[in-house]
Design brief:
Helices cover 36% and strands 29% of the residues. It is of the alpha+beta class. The protein folds into three domains: 82 residues, no CATH class; 200 residues, Acetylcholine Binding Protein, Chain: A (Distorted Sandwich); 168 residues, no CATH class.
Length: 465
């Protein structure tokens, strides 16, 4: 605000001089605040005049509007500091461009939005006769001052922190329409979604309003509500100098902005409407995602395909070895997790590891149970149809069969020596159907391993978890 008063100082001196002299503010023909503008009647084509004459003509139009407003309202500063008369002011958003999204700290997830808006509004005090003045619009110069909407957000961010909101390139038309370009940079309110960790998403929102309490501000949108953006989020260092603020991009983060959305939010209170700018960003961590999934996936595939490695004892060793690899991968995942956790949400990658551990545990338990059953001597043969089916699965599907020479353990009766009972001695003459039952146990283990393998492949291929 002190800058505005300094820029208005020449006009304040003129108004004070007029008040002291006691003269009524009246404009002589073609003279406005000491500027002789009668030469404008000699202009036949405004496009043929040179730059200095163009600037002089624009100054004449501007001071004509100032003097006309002073005569109408009786207020010297109304055109500069007060908004147009009326209960409401409609500001049209013609275009919104996100110039840059940046972070001040690499470990932070709070984005700053830097962008520009092209806006337009109507001010009846800025109308003039195009035929009389030969021009239908002019650019407001550095020595011109009219009321413009000043946008702000709801944070306590100051220019020292790199926050700004400036109105530039103000263009005035003879019908009272005003167009301008607003440049802004403010922190946004962000909410993380860790479901797809380590490629989590971040949705950020910025609420802009106009610092005006006397008039009701309304917004209309003539730009795209949603627009695709492909911008990397930069890590920015803010340098404050006496005359300007410099933003220096020192690095590029893993975040990438995918789209932005513009909406008008209606709330109660003095500022009845807000501009809501939303961006959707995603972390691009494809390499880390592969590093966290592929080793555990390969280990699980080896575990579920263990029937191809040999007998049940070998399968148990393979499965316990792959379970150790899965545990190492999970510990690495936990070591790189955010220090503050996942805000109460469980990422799908953790659900994937839970599925791996559950699947591995069930597979190991099934193999151990089948291995234990193979140690029991059987004297009663199994169902012939079940035996044939088990043999078919083992020989043609899994390419394996129980080896009669393989002894998982010594039978309980074999450990007895001369002190054995008569029933045990008679059982030695009973028929041995252990191999047939082993076919059933191994087939059951292979069949369940195949089902688990199919479920796991479906989860991986269709990216269910």
């Amino acid at each position: 605000m002190p800058t505005v008063y300094i820029l208005l100082f020449p006009l304040l001196i003129v108004s004070v001089w007029i008040t002291v002299s006691g003269d009524v503010i009246t404009a002589t023909e073609g003279s406005f605040f000491g500027q002789n503008c009668t030469w404008r009647h000699n202009i036949t084509d405004v496009d043929l005049i040179h730059a200095e004459q163009q600037e002089a003509l624009e100054n004449c139009v501007y001071y004509y509007l100032v003097q006309k407003d002073m005569l109408t309202s009786g207020d010297t500063y109304m055109l500069f500091l007060k908004p147009p008369l009326g209960e409401s002011i409609t500001i049209n958003i013609q275009q919104l461009t996100i110039i840059q999204v940046d972070l001040v700290d690499k470990t932070s997830n709070q984005f700053h939005l830097r962008g520009e808006m092209y806006i337009a509004w109507n001010d009846a005090r800025l109308k003039w006769n195009q035929t009389e003045w030969k021009i239908d619009n002019f650019l407001v110069h550095n020595n011109h001052h009219i009321w413009t909407p000043m946008f702000t957000d709801e944070s306590s961010c100051s220019p020292l922190d790199g926050c700004l909101s400036t109105v530039n390139d103000v263009q005035v038309y003879n019908d009272g329409k005003v167009e301008a370009r607003v440049v802004f940079r403010y922190p946004s309110f962000c909410g993380m979604n860790f479901y797809n960790y380590p490629e989590e998403t971040n949705d950020c929102f910025l609420f802009l309003s106009v610092m005006e309490t006397e008039a009701k501000i309304q917004f209309t949108l003539d730009t795209k509500v949603k627009e695709k953006i492909n911008k990397a989020v930069a890590i920015t260092d803010v340098e404050n100098q006496p005359s300007q603020t410099i933003f220096k991009n020192v690095a590029t983060s893993a975040w990438k902005v995918e789209d932005r959305t513009l909406d008008v939010v209606k709330v109660g209170g003095l500022r009845s409407q807000y501009l809501k700018i939303s961006i959707h960003a995603k972390k691009d961590m494809a390499t880390l995602k592969v590093a966290l999934r592929i080793p555990a996936t390969i280990a699980t595939l080896l575990m579920l395909a263990s029937p191809l490695f040999g007998d049940l004892r070998t399968q148990v060793f393979v499965k316990f070895g792959t379970l150790i690899l899965q545990t190492i991968c999970f510990l690495f995942l936990c070591s790189i997790a955010p220090e503050n956790g996942f805000v109460g949400n469980k990422p799908r990658l953790y659900s994937f590891y839970e599925f791996l551990f559950l699947n591995s545990t069930i597979s190991i338990c099934i193999t151990l149970i089948c291995l234990a059953l193979c140690r029991v001597k059987r004297t009663v043969p199994p169902s012939h149809n079940l035996y044939l089916m088990a043999k078919l699965i083992n020989r043609f599907v899994c390419c394996t069969e129980p080896d009669p020479a393989t002894s998982y353990t010594r039978y309980l009766e074999d450990t007895r020596e001369n002190g054995g009972t008569m029933e045990a001695q008679r059982s030695d003459n009973a028929p041995d159907h252990t191999i047939e039952w082993r076919h059933l146990y191994i087939a059951a283990n292979n069949l369940l391993a195949g089902i688990s393998f199919s479920i796991f492949c479906m989860v991986v291929i269709f990216d269910i978890l």
